[in-house]
């Protein structure tokens, strides 16, 4: 599955929300994607099309124009039956280090992060 967004919105560590790391975007069609994790939890949460799911073992690849989220086939219900979501984005290159830091915080110890930046 693929969606397109202008901007990846991130917060690597929100002190007002117990150090929550969060990445979200809204597709050109208005679909919401949100991925977040509190540092003391063993799972991350994905909300896609208003449906929350708790997952572990997520693999994320970030490039200058693409964010690829891959999940286990057994968790495919989180992405409407798909085991991957490709997000095509236009995030400014100067903001990508913060996106990268956020993804590293979300996936630390429970997932795989691959940088193509």
Give short descriptive properties of this protein.
117 residues, mainly beta, five-stranded mixed beta sheet, five-stranded antiparallel beta sheet, 1 helix, globular
**Mean pLDDT, rounded to whole units?**
95
Q: Supply the number of structural domains.
A: 1
**Shape, per Cα inertia axes:** globular
Task: Name the strands of the widest sheet in spatial order.
Answer: 1-9-8-7-10
Which segments are poorly predicted (pLDDT under 50) over 5 or more consecutive residues?
none
Run of helices and strands: EEEEEEEEEHE
End-to-end distance, in Å? Answer: 22 Å
Rg over C-alpha atoms, rounded to the nearest angstrom = 13 Å
Sheet with the most strands? 5 strands, mixed
Helix-residue proportion: 10-25%
Number of helices: 1
Please state roughly what percent of the residues sit in beta strands, choosing from under 5%, 5-15%, 15-25%, 25-35%, 35-45% or over 45%. 35-45%
Number of strands: 10
Global structural class: mainly beta
Protein name: DUF1292 domain-containing protein
Organism: Pseudomonas nunensis
Would you write up a description of this structure?
It comes from Pseudomonas nunensis. This is DUF1292 domain-containing protein. By secondary structure, this protein is mostly beta strands. The protein has one domain (about 1-115). It is built from 1 helix and 10 strands. It has one helix at about 95-105, and strands spanning about 1-5, 10-15, 20-25, 30-35, 45-50, 50-55, 60, 65-70, 85-90, 110-115. Strands 1-9-8-7-10 form a 5-stranded mixed β-sheet, with helices on one face. The chain has a 5-stranded antiparallel β-sheet with strand order 2-3-4-5-6. The longest helix has 12 residues, at about 95-105. The two termini are about 20 Å apart. The mean pLDDT is about 95.
């Amino acid at each position: 599955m693929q969606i397109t967004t202008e901007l990846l919105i991130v917060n690597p560590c929100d002190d007002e929300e117990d150090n929550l790391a969060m990445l979200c975007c809204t597709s050109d069609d208005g679909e919401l994607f949100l991925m977040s994790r509190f540092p003391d939890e063993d799972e991350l949460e994905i909300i896609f099309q208003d449906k929350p799911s708790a997952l572990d073992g997520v693999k994320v690849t970030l490039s200058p124009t693409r964010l690829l989220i891959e999940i286990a086939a057994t968790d495919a219900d989180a992405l409407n039956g798909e085991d991957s979501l490709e997000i095509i984005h236009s995030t400014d290159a100067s903001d990508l280090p913060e996106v990268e830091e956020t993804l590293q915080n979300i996936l630390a110890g429970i997932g795989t992060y691959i940088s193509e930046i």
